[in-house]
């Protein structure tokens, strides 16, 4: 039975229930960690592996890092986040010794072994997969190493072992490079976007491998990735790269988000107080020219300091709801649809048929938000083609509503090819001279330039030719052009490519308020659980509903692998699992009917109490923000009350997780 605490869409999806609850619990614990606790962590007896002192790096057009100091100790598992172009990959290259800073230095412990996977790393195309991964080591030697077997099974189960690298696809080459790195012994591993070209199962395997690669107080990992589920699963610390600095946070992605929100809230409260001072100062200064020259100079200097310290506004990422075409009750119905493709039987050398989809029955409802899961080649693109009309069924029929207007955000960015030499602002201006954003009295009319700025483009980027944009900028422009067509059915095919975590959060916020029907195909588990309400999987040509979401999909894939796994892979002492997933957790005891009903009632009660406490916490935060900051006694009372409320929330969340797991078990 699906049970989830009300909240974001990721919490409502069955597969994300437990993960969302655990993430919230970790986040709160990370945010509540006191300075004394953080200091205790630093004082633990952990060996220092490498450090950076006052790093300075400049490119011709900007300063990338200025006076950056940080360190990596044994046991660190660090995720690096930040906007595209802010220097995440550059930071890894500096720490790994692949790039020398203009100022400062990087120190490394004597004898330290550093391994790195760069986005630009390529495997020698003249070698075979076996030569690239294990080199000239005899097969009976590497096959006896459990770690090597695990890496090969996890990343290369579907890659021909003796094929040449040149014959592989780009994704297979990337996985071969990752496997070649992971079979080695390293004290520090740097990974730059390791989840690219991995499916949901591959990402789950990689997370399990990295978590078990070293003892908890040994080795170190620094990873740049936009996969937020992976960050939360693997990392115990987060570095945010922005504005030439590196800001550390405790915990994984969920804890980082909560701490960042708290930081921004405190900064907003401080800024509100400072703005009040600014108004008072400027009002005093504006009483006339004689006053400005005759009053004490320190008053003028104080006002100038307040104005001079005004922090720059960070690149805004905002796009309110755009219009959509009216959608009737009928969207798209797939009625007993099968799709068969002609192939050539290699053994017989004769034409044959390959059934991709079989007996698919799917009635898409207005406003439906669905995620599609499946391994590469399972038929996801074929299924989407049936919805859009690009693929015709071999048997069965597809029925479309008269008002349906479908748009697809594809992986290839093909929509931008015809505008490659056009300026960004000109591309949007060609669609319409003005755009109306929002609804009712809150609706505003924006120029193309203003609309682009709301989606994260700076003024200087508006005159940039489309062909010179970064991958993330092209993806944002592509999405904007699609939304301006006012579709009522939106299909997203791997939409997270080339987007940083901030932009992903902004896109998800936009999709939250988008009123049409949404179909998503993605290997990004966080995105799937965040923006969709239900998930389907394509398994053996059939479309299967997943009430428990991604977790259920991984279990089904594991069962398929266990049923189909051969007794011997053909390599001495080596057994290849066909699916790359974490080991299943111990099953919880099954509840009786009466026990389940009692647990469901308790869960509903906890939900209501948590909502009430959340409202009280919000009110107390507002009181703290406007309270006189010089009234230390009053602030202490409010702080004690806030601490008690948060302790109550933590206890209830822990109990909510226990009850929810018992029901799901």
| Beta strand count | 20
Strand content: 15-25%
Question: If you average the pLDDT, what whole number results?
Answer: 78
Number of domains: 3
Distance between the termini: 9 Å
Q: What coarse outline follows from CA principal-axis ratios? A: globular
Structural class: alpha/beta
CATH architecture descriptor text of the largest domain: 3-Layer(aba) Sandwich
How many DSSP H or I helices? 22
- What is the fold named in CATH at topology level of the largest domain? Rossmann fold
Protein name: ABC transporter ATP-binding protein
GO molecular function: ATP binding; ATP hydrolysis activity; DNA binding
Region (Disordered): 1-39, 559-590
Pfam family, one: ABC_tran_CTD
Q: Can you tell me about this structure?
A:
The chain is α/β, with parallel strands linked by helices. 43% of the residues lie in helices and 20% in strands. A 6-stranded mixed β-sheet has the order 5-6-7-3-8-9, with helices on both faces. Strand 19 and strand 20 form a beta hairpin. The chain is globular and about 85 Å long. InterPro entries: AAA+_ATPase, ABC_tran_C, ABC_transporter-like_ATP-bd, ABC_transporter-like_CS, ABCF_ATPase, P-loop_NTPase, Val-tRNA_synth_C_sf.
């Amino acid at each position: 039975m699906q049970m989830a605490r009300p909240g974001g869409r990721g919490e409502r999806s069955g597969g994300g229930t437990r993960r969302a609850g655990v993430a919230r619990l970790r986040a709160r614990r990370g945010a509540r960690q006191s300075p004394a606790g953080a200091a205790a962590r630093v004082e633990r007896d952990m060996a220092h592996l490498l450090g950076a002192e006052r790093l300075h790096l400049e490119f011709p057009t900007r300063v990338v890092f200025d006076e950056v100091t940080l360190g990596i100790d044994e046991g660190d598992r660090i995720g690096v986040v930040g906007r595209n172009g802010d220097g995440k990959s550059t930071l890894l290259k500096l720490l790994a010794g692949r790039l020398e800073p203009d100022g400062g230095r990087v120190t490394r412990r004597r004898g330290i072994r550093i391994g790195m996977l760069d986005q630009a790393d390529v495997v020698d195309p003249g070698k075979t997969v076996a030569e690239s991964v294990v080199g000239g080591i005899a097969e009976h030697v590497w096959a006896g190493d459990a770690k090597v077997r695990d890496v090969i099974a996890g990343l290369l189960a579907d890659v021909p072992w003796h094929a040449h690298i040149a014959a592989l696809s780009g994704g297979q080459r990337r996985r071969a490079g990752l496997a070649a790195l992971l079979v080695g012994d390293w004290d520090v591993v740097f990974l730059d976007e390791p989840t690219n070209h991995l499916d949901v199962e591959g990402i789950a395997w990689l997370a399990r491998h990295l978590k078990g690669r070293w003892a908890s107080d040994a080795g170190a990992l620094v990873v740049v990735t936009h996969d937020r589920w992976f960050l939360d699963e693997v990392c115990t610390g987060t570095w945010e790269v922005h504005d030439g600095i590196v800001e550390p946070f405790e915990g994984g992605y969920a804890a980082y988000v909560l701490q960042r929100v708290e930081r921004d809230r405190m900064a907003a409260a401080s800024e509100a107080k400072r703005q009040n001072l600014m108004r008072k100062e400027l009002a005093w200064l504006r009483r006339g020219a004689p006053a400005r020259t005759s009053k004490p100079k320190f008053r003028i200097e104080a006002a100038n300091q307040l104005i001079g310290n005004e922090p720059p506004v960070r690149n805004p990422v905002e796009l309110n709801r755009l219009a959509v075409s009216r959608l009737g009750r009928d969207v798209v119905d797939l009625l007993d649809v099968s799709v068969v493709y002609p192939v050539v039987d290699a053994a017989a050398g004769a034409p044959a048929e390959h059934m991709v989809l079989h007996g698919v029955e799917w009635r898409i409802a207005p406003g439906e938000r669905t995620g599609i899961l499946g391994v590469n080649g399972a038929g996801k693109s074929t299924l989407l083609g049936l919805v859009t009309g690009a693929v015709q069924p071999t048997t069965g029929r597809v029925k479309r509503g008269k008002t349906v207007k479908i748009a697809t955000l594809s992986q290839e960015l093909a929509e931008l090819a015809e505008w490659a030499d056009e300026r960004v602002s000109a591309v949007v201006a060609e669609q319409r001279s003005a755009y109306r954003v929002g609804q009712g009295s809150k609706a505003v009319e924006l120029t193309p330039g203003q609309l682009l700025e709301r989606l994260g483009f700076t003024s200087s980027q508006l005159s940039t030719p489309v062909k010179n944009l970064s991958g993330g900028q092209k993806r944002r422009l592509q999405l904007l052009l699609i939304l301006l067509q006012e579709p009522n059915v939106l299909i997203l095919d791997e939409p997270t490519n080339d987007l940083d975590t901030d932009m992903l959060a902004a896109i998800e916020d936009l999709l939250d308020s988008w009123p049409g029907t949404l179909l998503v195909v993605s290997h990004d588990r966080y995105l799937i659980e965040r923006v969709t309400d239900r998930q389907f999987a394509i398994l053996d040509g059939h479309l299967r509903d997943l009430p428990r979401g991604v977790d259920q999909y991984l279990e089904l894939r594991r069962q398929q692998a266990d049923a189909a796994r051969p007794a011997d892979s053909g390599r001495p002492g080596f057994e290849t699992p066909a699916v790359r997933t974490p080991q299943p957790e111990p099953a919880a005891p099954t509840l009786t009917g009466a026990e389940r009903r009692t647990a469901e009632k308790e869960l509903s009660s906890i939900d209501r109490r948590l909502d009430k406490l959340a409202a009280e916490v919000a009110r107390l935060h507002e009181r703290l923000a406007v309270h006189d900051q010089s009234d230390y006694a009053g602030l202490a009372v409010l702080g004690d009350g806030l601490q008690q409320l948060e302790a109550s929330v933590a206890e209830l969340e822990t109990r909510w997780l226990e009850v929810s797991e018992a029901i799901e078990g």
